[in-house]
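Standup notes
- DV: blocked on the single-chain target, sequence here:
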Amino acid sequence: MSAPKAKQKRKRNARSTPKSKRAAPLLSRPVLAGGAAFVLLGLAGFVTGRNVGRAPGSAAYQKTIERWCAEYGVNPDLAAAVVEVESSGRPRAVSSAGALGLMQVMPDTAGAMAEELGLPAPTREGLFDPELNIRLGVYYLAKQRRRFHDERVFVIAAYHAGPTAVDRWRRRRADLSAAAVIEEVAFPSTRHYVRKVLTRWREILEAKAAARG
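- DV (later): unblocked, structure below
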Protein backbone atom coordinates (compact mmCIF):
# COMPACT_ATOMS: atom_id res chain seq x y z
CA MET A 1 0.00 0.00 0.00
CA SER A 2 1.70 3.13 -1.13
CA ALA A 3 1.16 6.58 0.30
CA PRO A 4 -1.20 8.81 -1.74
CA LYS A 5 0.67 10.34 -4.64
CA ALA A 6 -1.48 13.33 -5.45
CA LYS A 7 1.60 15.53 -5.68
CA GLN A 8 3.62 13.13 -7.77
CA LYS A 9 4.05 14.29 -11.35
CA ARG A 10 4.41 12.00 -14.25
CA LYS A 11 7.93 12.17 -15.66
CA ARG A 12 8.19 13.04 -19.32
CA ASN A 13 11.15 12.47 -21.55
CA ALA A 14 12.40 15.71 -23.05
CA ARG A 15 12.32 14.01 -26.41
CA SER A 16 9.02 12.39 -27.18
CA THR A 17 9.19 8.78 -28.33
CA PRO A 18 7.82 8.12 -31.83
CA LYS A 19 4.52 6.27 -31.68
CA SER A 20 5.95 3.40 -33.66
CA LYS A 21 8.50 2.75 -30.91
CA ARG A 22 6.20 3.06 -27.91
CA ALA A 23 5.20 0.03 -25.89
CA ALA A 24 2.25 -1.89 -27.21
CA PRO A 25 -1.08 -0.89 -25.64
CA LEU A 26 -2.47 -2.90 -22.76
CA LEU A 27 -4.35 -5.97 -23.85
CA SER A 28 -7.64 -6.85 -22.17
CA ARG A 29 -9.01 -10.34 -22.10
CA PRO A 30 -11.44 -12.21 -19.83
CA VAL A 31 -10.19 -14.77 -17.34
CA LEU A 32 -12.68 -16.97 -15.56
CA ALA A 33 -12.60 -16.73 -11.79
CA GLY A 34 -15.21 -18.70 -9.88
CA GLY A 35 -17.54 -18.61 -12.88
CA ALA A 36 -17.22 -14.85 -13.43
CA ALA A 37 -14.90 -13.16 -15.88
CA PHE A 38 -12.51 -10.45 -14.81
CA VAL A 39 -10.29 -8.33 -17.01
CA LEU A 40 -6.61 -9.18 -17.13
CA LEU A 41 -4.27 -6.43 -18.25
CA GLY A 42 -0.99 -7.40 -19.79
CA LEU A 43 1.62 -5.98 -22.08
CA ALA A 44 2.39 -8.22 -25.05
CA GLY A 45 5.07 -10.60 -23.83
CA PHE A 46 4.68 -9.48 -20.21
CA VAL A 47 2.21 -12.10 -19.00
CA THR A 48 3.85 -15.48 -18.71
CA GLY A 49 3.15 -18.76 -17.04
CA ARG A 50 6.59 -19.09 -15.50
CA ASN A 51 5.23 -18.96 -11.94
CA VAL A 52 2.25 -21.24 -12.48
CA GLY A 53 2.40 -24.12 -10.05
CA ARG A 54 4.94 -22.39 -7.83
CA ALA A 55 3.96 -22.42 -4.18
CA PRO A 56 2.71 -18.83 -3.61
CA GLY A 57 4.54 -16.69 -1.07
CA SER A 58 1.17 -15.97 0.52
CA ALA A 59 0.42 -19.66 1.21
CA ALA A 60 1.55 -19.53 4.83
CA TYR A 61 -0.99 -16.79 5.48
CA GLN A 62 -3.87 -18.16 3.43
CA LYS A 63 -6.19 -18.77 6.37
CA THR A 64 -5.63 -15.26 7.69
CA ILE A 65 -6.20 -13.81 4.23
CA GLU A 66 -9.39 -15.79 3.76
CA ARG A 67 -10.75 -14.85 7.19
CA TRP A 68 -10.35 -11.10 6.71
CA CYS A 69 -11.44 -11.21 3.09
CA ALA A 70 -14.65 -12.92 4.17
CA GLU A 71 -15.10 -10.27 6.87
CA TYR A 72 -14.63 -7.31 4.53
CA GLY A 73 -15.88 -8.68 1.21
CA VAL A 74 -12.63 -8.95 -0.76
CA ASN A 75 -11.63 -11.68 -3.19
CA PRO A 76 -8.99 -13.71 -1.28
CA ASP A 77 -7.04 -14.53 -4.43
CA LEU A 78 -6.72 -10.83 -5.17
CA ALA A 79 -5.46 -10.19 -1.64
CA ALA A 80 -2.99 -13.08 -1.97
CA ALA A 81 -1.72 -11.59 -5.23
CA VAL A 82 -1.23 -8.23 -3.53
CA VAL A 83 0.73 -9.88 -0.73
CA GLU A 84 3.02 -11.58 -3.21
CA VAL A 85 3.62 -8.51 -5.35
CA GLU A 86 4.07 -6.22 -2.35
CA SER A 87 6.33 -8.36 -0.18
CA SER A 88 6.79 -11.82 -1.73
CA GLY A 89 5.25 -13.12 1.48
CA ARG A 90 7.95 -11.61 3.73
CA PRO A 91 6.29 -10.34 6.93
CA ARG A 92 9.16 -7.98 7.81
CA ALA A 93 9.49 -6.40 4.38
CA VAL A 94 10.19 -2.65 4.39
CA SER A 95 10.06 -0.46 1.29
CA SER A 96 12.21 2.56 0.55
CA ALA A 97 9.07 4.68 1.07
CA GLY A 98 8.53 3.21 4.55
CA ALA A 99 5.72 0.77 3.78
CA LEU A 100 5.74 -2.21 6.13
CA GLY A 101 4.93 -5.88 6.26
CA LEU A 102 3.16 -8.39 4.06
CA MET A 103 0.82 -5.90 2.40
CA GLN A 104 3.26 -2.99 2.59
CA VAL A 105 1.03 -0.79 4.71
CA MET A 106 2.08 2.84 5.19
CA PRO A 107 2.07 3.73 8.91
CA ASP A 108 -0.15 6.82 8.49
CA THR A 109 -2.66 4.90 6.40
CA ALA A 110 -2.56 2.01 8.87
CA GLY A 111 -3.36 4.43 11.68
CA ALA A 112 -6.36 5.80 9.83
CA MET A 113 -7.64 2.30 9.04
CA ALA A 114 -7.18 1.17 12.64
CA GLU A 115 -9.13 4.20 13.86
CA GLU A 116 -12.01 3.38 11.51
CA LEU A 117 -12.02 -0.18 12.82
CA GLY A 118 -11.89 0.92 16.45
CA LEU A 119 -8.46 -0.60 16.98
CA PRO A 120 -5.57 0.88 18.94
CA ALA A 121 -3.11 2.88 16.88
CA PRO A 122 -0.60 0.34 15.54
CA THR A 123 3.07 0.66 16.31
CA ARG A 124 5.72 0.25 13.64
CA GLU A 125 6.63 -3.13 15.10
CA GLY A 126 2.98 -4.09 15.29
CA LEU A 127 2.61 -3.67 11.53
CA PHE A 128 5.03 -6.56 11.03
CA ASP A 129 2.47 -8.86 12.66
CA PRO A 130 0.85 -10.81 9.78
CA GLU A 131 -2.58 -10.85 11.43
CA LEU A 132 -2.78 -7.07 11.84
CA ASN A 133 -1.04 -6.23 8.60
CA ILE A 134 -3.34 -8.42 6.52
CA ARG A 135 -6.42 -7.16 8.34
CA LEU A 136 -5.56 -3.52 7.65
CA GLY A 137 -4.45 -4.18 4.08
CA VAL A 138 -7.59 -6.14 3.23
CA TYR A 139 -9.77 -3.48 4.85
CA TYR A 140 -8.07 -0.85 2.71
CA LEU A 141 -8.71 -2.96 -0.40
CA ALA A 142 -12.37 -3.22 0.64
CA LYS A 143 -12.61 0.56 0.89
CA GLN A 144 -11.27 0.91 -2.64
CA ARG A 145 -13.65 -1.79 -3.85
CA ARG A 146 -16.61 0.20 -2.55
CA ARG A 147 -15.27 3.51 -3.80
CA PHE A 148 -14.66 2.23 -7.32
CA HIS A 149 -17.72 -0.04 -7.49
CA ASP A 150 -15.67 -3.22 -7.76
CA GLU A 151 -13.82 -2.04 -10.89
CA ARG A 152 -10.80 -4.18 -10.11
CA VAL A 153 -8.31 -2.29 -12.26
CA PHE A 154 -9.07 0.89 -10.32
CA VAL A 155 -9.09 -0.95 -6.98
CA ILE A 156 -5.57 -2.26 -7.57
CA ALA A 157 -4.36 1.08 -8.91
CA ALA A 158 -5.76 2.85 -5.85
CA TYR A 159 -3.98 0.43 -3.52
CA HIS A 160 -0.74 1.48 -5.16
CA ALA A 161 -1.19 5.19 -5.92
CA GLY A 162 -4.04 6.21 -3.64
CA PRO A 163 -7.70 6.81 -4.52
CA THR A 164 -7.23 10.55 -5.10
CA ALA A 165 -4.86 9.86 -7.97
CA VAL A 166 -7.22 7.33 -9.52
CA ASP A 167 -10.14 9.76 -9.26
CA ARG A 168 -8.04 12.39 -11.02
CA TRP A 169 -7.16 10.00 -13.84
CA ARG A 170 -10.79 9.00 -14.27
CA ARG A 171 -11.91 12.63 -14.54
CA ARG A 172 -9.15 13.39 -16.98
CA ARG A 173 -10.21 10.62 -19.38
CA ALA A 174 -13.81 9.90 -18.53
CA ASP A 175 -14.35 8.74 -22.10
CA LEU A 176 -12.08 5.72 -21.66
CA SER A 177 -12.52 2.28 -20.14
CA ALA A 178 -10.80 1.53 -16.84
CA ALA A 179 -8.04 -0.40 -18.61
CA ALA A 180 -7.46 2.45 -21.05
CA VAL A 181 -7.34 5.03 -18.24
CA ILE A 182 -4.52 3.08 -16.59
CA GLU A 183 -2.73 2.74 -19.92
CA GLU A 184 -3.06 6.37 -20.94
CA VAL A 185 -2.73 8.50 -17.81
CA ALA A 186 -1.65 6.47 -14.76
CA PHE A 187 1.84 6.73 -13.30
CA PRO A 188 4.12 4.27 -15.14
CA SER A 189 4.87 2.60 -11.81
CA THR A 190 1.15 2.13 -11.13
CA ARG A 191 0.57 0.75 -14.62
CA HIS A 192 3.33 -1.79 -14.01
CA TYR A 193 1.95 -2.62 -10.56
CA VAL A 194 -1.55 -3.30 -11.90
CA ARG A 195 -0.14 -5.65 -14.51
CA LYS A 196 1.91 -7.51 -11.92
CA VAL A 197 -0.98 -7.98 -9.50
CA LEU A 198 -3.39 -9.14 -12.20
CA THR A 199 -0.77 -11.47 -13.63
CA ARG A 200 -0.09 -13.02 -10.24
CA TRP A 201 -3.82 -13.27 -9.57
CA ARG A 202 -4.24 -15.24 -12.79
CA GLU A 203 -1.33 -17.50 -11.90
CA ILE A 204 -2.84 -18.27 -8.50
CA LEU A 205 -6.11 -19.23 -10.16
CA GLU A 206 -4.32 -21.40 -12.70
CA ALA A 207 -2.34 -23.13 -9.98
CA LYS A 208 -5.55 -23.88 -8.08
CA ALA A 209 -7.20 -25.22 -11.21
CA ALA A 210 -4.19 -27.43 -11.91
CA ALA A 211 -4.24 -28.75 -8.34
CA ARG A 212 -7.88 -29.71 -8.73
CA GLY A 213 -7.00 -31.66 -11.84
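- Follow-up: The radius of gyration is 17 Å.
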